[in-house]
Design goal:
Elements (H helix, E strand, L loop, with lengths): L4 H30 L23 E10 L4 E2 L4 E8 L7 E8 L5 E8 L1 E8 L6 E7 L5 E6 L7
Parallel strand pairs: 1-8
Antiparallel strand pairs: 1-2, 1-5, 3-4, 3-6, 6-7
Length: about 150
């Protein structure tokens, strides 16, 4: 009588599955019942636990761009607003927004978190401007004055 190799393989798989269900699964259930259930995030930990950090407050800023000796408005200037977005797992990420000024040289930038922001202004025929500011209030107005570039001969 010859043995069928596929029959032997099937029987060995059944034996392994039975041994697994008899010995390992009850051990996993007993370990799981010993651990206390996890607390939901909405319940406070207690008076000694540190407070959870609040997300930064989001505000809208206004930027006025003028240039030259007569402080005339600079239209169609590219205004870049950059700020750091903090992450717990990865490193901080520098977020950038690009907007253009109106004919009045003004621009409104919404959804900016309070803290340190970098404002850069680039306009054709004017020197590039860039500076870090502390953003503290909603509706804060930043007045930026551009100068003409030096003449190169």
């Amino acid at each position: 009588m010859s043995r069928d190799p596929s029959l032997v393989a099937r029987l060995s798989r059944v034996a392994i599955a039975a041994a697994f269900s008899i010995f390992l699964i009850p051990a996993a259930y007993s370990r799981q019942s010993q651990n206390p259930p996890a607390k939901p995030d909405s319940q406070p930990e207690g008076p000694d636990s540190p407070p959870k950090p609040k997300p930064p407050e989001i505000v809208t800023i206004h930027i006025e761009v003028t240039g030259g000796e007569k402080d005339k408005p600079v239209e169609n200037a590219s205004v870049y607003v950059r700020y750091n977005e903090t992450h717990k797992i990865k490193g901080d990420k520098l977020i950038e927004m690009n907007v253009k000024t109106s004919v009045d040289g003004k621009v409104r930038v919404p959804l900016v978190p309070k803290g340190k922001i970098l404002i850069q202004v680039i306009a054709e025929g004017w020197k590039t401007y860039g500076r870090w500011f502390d953003l503290t209030d909603d509706g804060q107005v930043f007045k930026i004055h551009l100068d003409r570039p030096y003449r190169w001969y």
